[in-house]
Amino acid sequence: MQERHKNRLLYFNEQANTTKRYVIPFIESVCKLKPEMRILEIGCGEGGNLKPFLDEGYLCTGIDLNAAQIANARHFFAGHPHADKLTLIERDIYDITNPEHYDIIILRDVIEHIHNQERFMGFLKRFINNGGVVFFGFPAWQMPFGGHQQICVSRISRMPWVHLLPQKLYAALLRRAGENEGTVQGLLEIKQTGISLERFERILRAEGYKVLKKEYWFIQPNYEVKFHLKKRRVPPLLRDIPWLRNFYTTAGYYVVTI
């Protein structure tokens, strides 16, 4: 599993495939895409989620703090027929004090890495065009691999729910298994920022967002690409059990507006 995170081109293509097949149709079910729309991805990495939009000629912007991933993105998109419609920005989102406005904003597997999500969700509104929407896709923190431990090189990569251990015990286990300190600190940071479905929805309400559509996935769409598993929604009876649903929801999909 960790090989996908090392092979950035493979990860880029997986993102592009899932966004084309599932994310865009999910958005279009409540917001019809039009040629003049402007697309922003926050935490874009190599920009795989932007590729299906760029393929169709939309004006696309990606922003990320990771210099290496932005460099990869520039390499991957070199020679793309619509490369002139893509802007890639290596910057902290909070440093953009006079932002442009976008019709569709994508945050896929990003919100669970952001500190102080309340502050971020308030700041995000500055980027949303009148009538614009934001797509969020993220794993519930308590789901089997909500701690992203699949990036480990040790047997911990195959241990579900291990990230729910108390922090000191979790850190000790990671180090004992031979994980390097960078991985340990990265996973401990995710332990601080991971977010449940309930907390995310509380933040939406507090910040005045309106949910246009949401879906909880028992087997999320990206697992078709990664593991050849057929996507499955959380059954209705299990979907409506607060807190407990986080343990078996591998992804929440939301389209929201203000």
What does this entry look like structurally?
This protein is of the alpha/beta class and 258 residues long. It is built from ten helices and eight strands. The protein has helices at residues 2-6, 8-28, 51-55, 67-77, 117-124, 167-176, 181-193, 197-206, 222-227, 236-239, and strands at 38-42, 59-64, 86-90, 102-108, 128-138, 210-219, 232-233, 251-257. The protein has an eight-stranded mixed β-sheet, sandwiched between helices. Strand 1 (38-42), helix 3 and strand 2 (59-64) form a beta-alpha-beta unit. Helix 6 (167-176) runs antiparallel to helix 7 (181-193). The longest helix has 21 residues, at 8-28. It is globular. Mean pLDDT is 96; it is low at 1-5.
Mean pLDDT across all amino acids: 96
| Distance N to C terminus | 37 Å
> Main β-sheet, in a few words?
8 strands, mixed
Strand content: 15-25%
How many DSSP E strands? 8
Radius of gyration: 18 Å
Q: Could you list the spans in which at least 5 consecutive residues all have pLDDT below 50?
A: 1-5
Helix content: 25-40%
- Number of separate helices: 10
Strand order of the largest sheet: 3-2-1-4-5-8-6-7
The arrangement of helices and strands along the chain is HHEHEHEEHEHHHEHEHE
Shape: globular
Structural classification? alpha/beta
